[in-house]
Amino acid sequence: MARAVQAEPFEKVTIKLLMLGDSGVGKSSLMIRFTNATFSEQMMGTTGIDMRVKDVNIQNRNVKMQIWDTAGQERFHSIARTYYCGAHGIILTYDVNDRTSFNNIPNWLEDIRKNTKEVFILLVGNKIDLHKVVSDNEAKEFAEKASIPFIMTSAKNDENVQDAFMNLIETILKSGIVIKPEKMRLKKKEETVKRCC
Questions:
Q1: What average pLDDT does the structure give for the chain?
Q2: Which of 52, 78, 77 is nearest to 67 (CA)?
Q3: Contact assessment for residue 84 and residue 36, using Cβ atoms and an 8 Å cutoff
Q4: Please, are residues 78 and 110 in contact by the beta-carbon 8 Å criterion?
Q5: C-alpha distances in angstroms, 18 versus 41, 88, 120, 122, 171?
Q6: Which pTM does this prediction carry?
Q7: Topology of domain 11-183, CATH
Q8: pLDDT tens, position by position, 2-11
């Protein structure tokens, strides 16, 4: 069994996360709520790829989170697949108010499993501040059958957003996946020697 990487002093562990799911489910809003603690009703849909970085301290490690937000439209799927490489975790999101976005989750899972080997997936039901079309029980049953954890969030109300990201990071760190530390170089103090002429 692989052992978890123990980060040495002054090293930063880098973890790559992908935001996947249909267009309009709130992937960008979740990412920005987590990284910037802000929310906008006028959020524009992602075109192509967007990436944000957040540093967190967890399990006595300095973790640099690279969060890649991908466009959900079909025409951008081939672009998104190029970013699967090297991903440690995926936040797979649907809108609880959009039945189609939930019905498409199996297609996303199939695509993920075709294009990744060892990656952790978290199913997220977003926009719980709105009327639910997809019931909690239905989503939980699906997650259990798919053997993936599940959480419900509201980017607007900042409900469970921190938990979603941090729980996934904790799972990745505990898993034993080898994560290459990013060494932080320390500037050595230069000794100045005064010479007499």
A1: 83
A2: 52
A3: no
A4: no
A5: 22, 8, 10, 10, 15
A6: 0.81
A7: Rossmann fold (3.40.50)
A8: 344 454 544 6
Name the token pair of 20.
């996947």
10 phi-psi bin (left φ>0, alpha ψ -120 to 50, beta other): left
pLDDT tens-place string over residues 145-174: 999 999 999 999 999 999 999 999 999 999
How far is the C-alpha of 30 from the C-alpha of 39, rounded, in Å? 8
In the chain, domain spans: 11-183
Cβ contact 75:47 at 8 Å: no
Rounded Cα distance, 109 and 104, in Å: 9
Measured in residues, the chain has a length of 197
Take residue 85 and report the two structure tokens written for it: 């490489």
Q: What distance in Å separates the CA atoms of residue 86 and residue 65, rounded to the nearest whole number? A: 13
Q: Which two tokens stand for residue 163?
A: 């938990």
